[in-house]
Amino acid sequence: xxxxxxxxxxxxxxxxxxxxxxxxxxxxxxxxxxxxxxxxxxxxxxxxxxxxxxxxxxxxxxxxxxxxxxxxxxxxxxxxxxxxxxxxxxxxxxxxxxxxxxxxxxxxxxxxxxxxxxxxxxxxxxxxxxxxxxxxxxxxxxxxxxxxxxxxxxxxxxxxxxxxxxxxxxxxxxxxxxxxxxxxxxxxxxxxxxxxxxxxxxxxxxxxxxxxxxxxxxxxxxxxxxxxxxxxxxxxxxxxxxxxxxxxxxxxxxxxxxxxxxxxxxxxxxxxxxxxxxxxxxxxxxxxxxxxxxxxxxxxxxxxxxxxxxxxxxxxxxxxxxxxxxxxxxxxxxxxxxxxxxxxxxxxxxxxxxxxxxxxxxxxxxxxxxxxxxxxxxxxxxxxxxxxxxxxxxxxxxxxxxxxxxxxxxxxxxxxxxxxxxxxxxxx
Length: 428
What we know:
Elements: H1 3-19, E1 21-36, E2 49-63, E3 68-78, E4 92-102, E5 107-114, E6 136-145, E7 148-156, E8 176-186, E9 189-205, E10 211-229, E11 234-244, E12 254-268, E13 271-280, E14 323-334, E15 337-347, H2 355-361, E16 370-382, E17 387-398, H3 400-406, E18 414-423
Antiparallel strand pairs: 1-2, 1-18, 2-3, 3-4, 4-5, 5-6, 6-7, 7-8, 8-9, 9-10, 10-11, 11-12, 12-13, 13-14, 14-15, 15-16, 16-17, 17-18
């Protein structure tokens, strides 16, 4: 190829790169965890767990006036979970693959596999702490104009390209979803409204257990998040109600709610104290009603909220006695280091049955609602713009009531520690 042609090609590619922004970056994130009563109280016959989990991602982005796309491929593995010299391990998957098409100056259509994140991650979150994270196969009609934003999302899932029928057999996923999210920014006040319907498919059987039909049960979640920014503090309020039916409680009706409030006070230039309380409704163990009062945070980044040891709502505590969480959090930055300490006090939101009293007298009685307390300490050190180091230690002080709900032994020590390196190279 002649020099003139090479120069012409170079100029063409440079001009194209200006009109269409292309990004190529990655993430390498190994995390070592020491688990000794993580997620549930440990028993005397159980030993601690020690392992390293790693997420490796390659992200390709394309941003043009005609279309915006994102493709994210990830490999999720525990160190040592595949044999050496293996030809393939089947661990690579597509985390995101979406295209956003502008329809006019205010509307766009976003389709494909994508993370759905709204407000503080309470109902919709990326679950980024989990090595695999969360994404959805969905279509979104997006609106944005000045201080208004709105998303209408729909999803309809199938396990395979069937010729007949719509029976859905994929575990741990919903059959269908529809939602509307609205957000208005008014000076120092942010107002969000969410209306969400999720359909979960359940199997109907006859008296001998033979499958007779399949049914989709619809659960509605409606609520708001308000954030008020003041010179001296930031106040936030969450309020959601749930109604309808879900797959786990057919044919029982759902009547549940979540309320949370917090106040964040900056006490120095790089320090902040947050005081908060969250109430997540639960179902009493002493009730004779068939109504379900246990709220489900659904797709939220639940690790963020009720203690880092994940005793509540991280793949557990669903359809249970609910939770009250009173907390105080402190964090500060010292040069390249960020450190923080969180303190939580947990109580049940509904009655936990006193089984000893019930066995001895036959009468229903409730245990003390106190479930325990947790302290979380963490630190982050930025080595450079591409590499950071994070570490943490958590300790859970249990109670008799917690063990009545989750098992384990009250005489055992429950703690958890972790060390994580985050490397985010930019290849282009």
